[in-house]
Design a protein that fits this description.
The complex is a heterodimer of chains A (about 240) and B (about 500).
Chain A lengths: L2 H30 L15 H14 L1 H6 L1 H21 L9 H30 L1 H5 L3 H22 L5 H12 L10 H16 L7 H6 L2 H4 L12 H8 L1
Chain B lengths: L34 H4 L12 H15 L1 H9 L11 H6 L6 H16 L1 H5 L1 H4 L6 H10 L8 H5 L6 H14 L5 H12 L8 H19 L14 E4 L10 H15 L3 E2 L17 H17 L4 E4 L3 H15 L13 E2 H10 L15 E3 L3 H6 L8 H13 L30 H7 L1 H14 L3 E4 L2 H10 L10 E3 H8 L7 H13 L1
Parallel strand pairs in B: 1-2, 1-3, 3-4, 5-6, 6-7
Classes of the chains: A mainly alpha (about 240), B mainly alpha (about 500).
C-alpha cells in the first residue's frame, strides 16, 4: 500500500462519514423544527398531491427561478442537469454489474460534463459582471464555483486529454467497500479530481450547498393551502393555549 | 404635487433595474418605542445591558421554533434572482434593500454564532459579530421591508424575507429596541380595542352617522349595528374603515350588501380591529393575544359566522393564521368557511343573482385593480388557488363598465406592495414610503396613459391610506384610490330604493 493510496482511502472514509453524518444531522434538525404557521406562497396547491407536483416542478425545472431570472435559470439548470448526468455516469465506477440504464447513459454523461462546465462559467460570469450579484458575493461563493469548475475540468481532461487507468480506479473504490486499500493510479489529474470531490463532500453539510435538502423543507413551497379547512398547530404553540 | 425634502423617483414607461447606491437609505429609521409602549407587549423598555448575548439567545430560540428561519438562513446560494424584485430596492437603489441583501444582515450574524464555517472562517463566508453597528443596520433595514413576499415568489427555495424581517424585529423587541409605530398601536388594541384608539361611543356615533347618510342617499334604512348579540355575522374590519377616506365608503358598501342579503350582522367594540400588528413584529404571543379578541367577541355576541372587511395583512392573519391562533371554530356554522372575506360574501351573492347593479353609477371612473400583497401571496379567496385575484376583479366587473388591468408583471402574484405595508405606514418613514411606491405608481401611470384609467381600487386599509398620502408626490390626486366595496355601494340597487326620483333629480340638475 503506497502512501498515496492510503491517504486517499482515509480521505474518502472521512469524507463519506462527514457527508452522511452532516446531512443526516441537518435533515433531522430541519424535520424536527416546527413550522408553527401556514405560510405557503400563494397561489398554492390545496392538496398534498398537488404540493408534490409543485415540489417536482421546483426540483426538476426550477420553476420559481424561471419566473425570477432567465439567465440564472438557464445557467443554473444546465449546470445542475449536467451534474446529474455526470453523477449517473460515474455510478459505473461504484457498482458491479453496471445497470443497463447506467450503461446507456454513458455518452450523455460526457455531454453532461460539458454542460456542467458551461453552466458554471455562466454563473461565475454573472457573479463578476452583474453589480447586484457581485455585491452579495462572498469569497466562499467564488471558491465553491472554482471547486466545481475544477472538478468538471479535471474530469473532462481525463476523458479527452490524459486517460487514467479507470479499471484500477474502480478496483480502488471496490476495495474500500471491504476495508481494503488497492493501489490508486498516481496520475495528477485523477488525484486532483478525487481530492476536490472529497473536499466538496466534506463542505456540503456546512455550506450553502445545504440548499439541496433545504428546498424540501421550505414551508413556503411544501405546505398545503388549507388553513381554514384544517387547524394547523404545533406543540409549542399548543402549550400556550394551556397557560 | 406634494412637497418632499428628498428626491421623488421619476416614473418611466418601462421598468428599469437601477445601479447600486450603497448606503442610500442608511439614514432611514423609524422612531424607537419608549418604555411605555414596550411594557404592555412584554418587552423591555430600553436596550438591555447584556443585549448582545440576549439577542443571540433569542435568535437560537427562534431557530428552534421556526423551520422557515432555519431553512432560509441556510439555503440561500446568492444566485441573484431576488435582487431586482423588491419595490424598496427599485425605489431606493440601496443594495441592503435587495431581498438577499436584507437577509444577509441576519445571515452574517447567524453564520458567526450558529455555523461551523462562520465560527472558524468568518471572513470567508461573510460572517460578522453582532456589534452595535450591526444592530443599527438591523433597525434601519428590517424596517424597510413591508413583508410583502414578492421575493419569495422568485426564489428557487421560496426564501421569504418577511420571515427573516419578522424574526429580526422579534429579536430587537426582546432586547428593548422596538418600533414606536407598531408597538404603540398594539398597545391601543389591548387598551381600547382598535389600532386607532376609537372608543365604543365614537364608533356608535360614526355608525349612526352612516345610517343617516345612506338613508338620505337612498331612502332605505340600512343598519350599521355594533355589539348586537345574536346577530348571524360578526364583521371584523380595519378601524380605518370607520372614518378614513376612501375606507369608509367601503364600510358603507359592506352594510348595503348585508342589507340586501337579508342577513343580520354586527360589528364589535371588543374586536373593532381586523389588522393584527403582532405579525409585523414577528411576535406569535402578541399576534395570538390580538386574535383571541375576535374569538372572545364571537362567543360574547353568539354569532354564527365571521366575515372580514377589506384589509391585506389582516386577511393574511385571518385566512392563514386565525384557525391556528384562535381556533377551533367548532361553535360557528360549519357550512361557511371561518373566516370569510367580504369579497367572497359579495361574490357569492352576485353568483346567486341576489344583487342588482346599475353599473352606470360608476361611469365617471375608469378602473384598475391593485392586488394587495398579503392577499395576493399569503392568502386565498374562494375554493380555488388564485381566487384572491379573480373574485375582486369579478366584483369590479359586475359593478363597473370600464376596467383595465395594469401590466402583467405588476399584478396578481407579482403585484408590487403599496410601499406602506408591514408596519411602515408611519410619517417618520415618508421617504421610504414614497420611494417604495414607485413601481406601483409607474404601472398605474402607464395604464392611465395607455387606457385612460382614472381610479385604482384596492382591498386593503394600508394600501388605501398609503396611496392617499403618496399619490400627490407623483403628481396624481389622492382621490384616485377607491375601495372595492365603494364601487359595490355606488352601483348596488337596494330593494325599495326609489331610483326614478333620484334620476330625475340628476337630470334636472344637469338641465339647470
Amino acid at each position: 500500500m503506497s502512501f498515496l493510496s492510503g491517504f486517499y482511502a482515509s480521505l474518502y472514509y472521512v469524507a463519506v462519514v462527514i457527508l452522511i453524518a452532516g446531512l443526516v444531522n441537518k435533515i433531522v434538525q430541519y424535520a424536527r423544527t416546527p413550522a408553527p404557521l401556514k405560510i405557503p406562497t400563494t397561489p398554492a396547491p390545496t392538496s398534498s398531491g398537488k404540493v408534490t407536483l409543485r415540489m417536482v416542478r421546483e426540483v426538476v425545472f426550477f420553476e420559481s427561478l424561471f419566473k425570477g431570472n432567465k439567465w440564472i435559470w438557464i445557467f443554473g439548470w444546465v449546470f445542475h442537469f449536467g451534474l446529474f448526468l455526470v453523477t449517473l455516469r460515474h455510478l459505473r465506477y461504484f457498482i458491479d454489474p453496471v445497470w443497463l440504464p447506467i450503461t446507456f447513459i454513458q455518452p450523455f454523461g460526457i455531454y453532461g460534463g460539458i454542460a456542467m462546465v458551461v453552466g458554471l462559467a455562466g454563473l461565475w460570469a454573472r457573479r463578476v459582471l452583474v453589480d447586484r450579484v457581485r455585491y452579495i458575493t462572498s469569497p466562499s461563493d467564488h471558491l465553491i464555483l472554482l471547486l466545481l469548475l475544477l472538478i468538471g475540468l479535471s474530469g473532462l481532461s481525463m476523458k479527452f486529454a490524459a486517460h487514467t487507468d479507470i479499471v484500477a480506479v474502480k478496483n480502488f473504490f471496490f476495495g474500500l467497500y471491504q476495508l481494503q486499500v488497492n493501489p490508486l493510479p498516481s496520475d495528477p489529474l485523477l488525484l486532483l479530481h478525487l481530492l476536490l470531490v472529497a473536499v466538496l463532500m466534506i463542505i456540503f453539510p456546512y455550506s450553502k450547498l445545504l440548499h439541496a435538502p433545504g428546498l424540501f423543507f421550505s414551508p413556503s413551497r411544501n405546505q398545503v393551502d388549507n388553513p381554514r379547512e384544517k387547524r394547523h398547530i404545533v406543540p409549542w404553540a399548543e402549550r400556550l393555549e394551556q397557560e | 404635487m406634494a412637497k418632499a425634502d428628498f428626491e421623488v423617483p421619476l416614473l418611466k414607461p418601462y421598468a428599469e433595474i437601477p445601479a447600486l447606491e450603497p448606503g442610500a437609505m442608511a439614514h432611514s429609521r423609524p422612531f424607537v418605542a419608549k418604555a411605555d409602549f414596550q411594557g404592555p407587549l412584554g418587552f423591555p423598555g430600553e436596550l438591555v445591558e447584556d443585549w448582545q448575548e440576549r439577542a443571540i439567545d433569542k435568535m437560537g430560540e427562534l431557530l428552534g421554533k421556526y423551520r422557515s428561519l432555519r431553512v432560509y438562513l441556510d439555503s440561500c446560494v446568492k444566485c441573484g434572482s431576488c435582487t431586482d424584485k423588491c419595490h424598496y430596492y427599485l425605489g431606493t437603489k440601496d443594495p441592503n434593500n435587495m431581498p438577499v441583501g436584507r437577509q444577509d444582515l441576519m445571515r452574517k450574524v447567524y453564520r458567526r454564532y450558529f455555523t461551523l464555517a462562520g465560527r472558524f472562517f468568518p471572513k470567508l463566508v461573510g460572517a460578522s459579530d453582532f456589534t452595535r453597528e450591526v444592530l443599527d443596520e438591523w433597525y434601519s433595514y428590517f424596517h424597510q421591508c413591508s413583508q410583502c413576499r414578492r421575493c419569495s415568489v422568485f426564489c428557487p427555495y421560496g426564501i421569504d424575507t418577511a420571515e427573516i424581517s419578522m424574526a429580526a424585529r422579534e429579536i430587537m423587541d426582546s432586547i428593548g429596541v422596538g418600533q414606536k409605530y407598531c408597538n404603540e398601536i398594539i398597545g391601543k388594541v389591548y387598551k381600547i380595542g382598535n389600532n386607532l384608539g376609537l372608543p365604543g361611543p365614537a364608533l356608535r356615533d360614526t355608525l349612526e352617522g352612516l345610517e343617516e347618510d345612506v338613508f338620505d342617499d337612498t331612502g332605505v334604512a340600512v343598519r350599521y349595528p355594533i355589539d348586537e348579540e345574536g346577530a348571524e355575522i360578526l364583521l371584523v374590519t380595519p378601524s380605518a374603515d370607520f372614518f378614513a377616506e376612501p375606507h369608509v365608503d367601503g364600510l358603507i358598501g359592506y352594510g348595503k350588501v348585508f342589507h340586501e342579503a337579508g342577513v343580520s350582522w354586527t360589528l364589535s367594540t371588543h374586536a373593532s380591529e381586523a389588522a393584527n400588528f403582532g405579525m409585523f413584529i414577528g411576535s406569535y404571543a402578541n399576534m395570538r393575544r390580538l386574535a383571541q379578541r375576535i374569538r372572545e367577541a364571537a362567543i360574547a355576541l353568539k354569532v354564527k359566522r365571521i366575515v372580514f372587511g377589506e384589509c391585506g395583512h389582516a386577511w393574511r392573519v385571518a385566512y392563514s393564521f386565525l384557525n391556528t391562533l384562535a381556533g377551533p371554530w367548532d361553535f360557528l356554522d360549519p357550512r361557511y368557511p371561518v373566516p370569510q372575506h367580504i369579497c367572497e360574501f359579495t361574490h357569492d351573492l352576485i353568483q346567486q343573482g341576489k344583487l342588482r347593479f346599475d353599473k352606470s353609477q360608476n361611469d365617471d371612473m375608469v378602473l384598475t385593480f391593485h392586488d394587495s400583497c398579503n392577499v395576493a401571496r399569503a392568502s386565498r379567496m374562494g375554493d380555488r388557488p388564485g381566487g384572491q385575484f379573480e373574485i375582486p376583479r369579478a366584483i369590479i366587473r359586475a359593478t363597473c363598465n370600464h376596467f383595465f388591468d395594469m401590466e402583467e408583471e405588476t399584478i396578481r402574484e407579482r403585484t408590487f406592495c403599496c410601499g406602506g405595508g408591514g408596519g411602515l405606514l408611519t410619517d417618520d418613514l415618508m421617504e421610504l414610503r414614497v420611494k417604495g411606491a414607485m413601481p406601483r405608481m409607474q404601472a398605474l401611470n402607464n395604464v392611465m396613459k395607455e387606457k385612460g384609467v382614472t381610479h385604482m381600487a384596492a382591498i386593503c386599509a394600508i394600501c388605501k391610506s398609503q396611496f392617499t398620502k403618496v399619490l400627490p408626490y407623483y403628481g396624481m390626486e389622492m382621490e384616485q384610490i377607491v375601495s372595492v366595496h365603494q364601487l359595490v355601494s355606488n352601483a348596488l340597487i337596494l330593494t325599495g330604493q326609489d331610483r326614478d326620483e333620484e334620476d330625475e333629480e340628476e337630470t334636472s340638475d344637469e338641465a339647470a
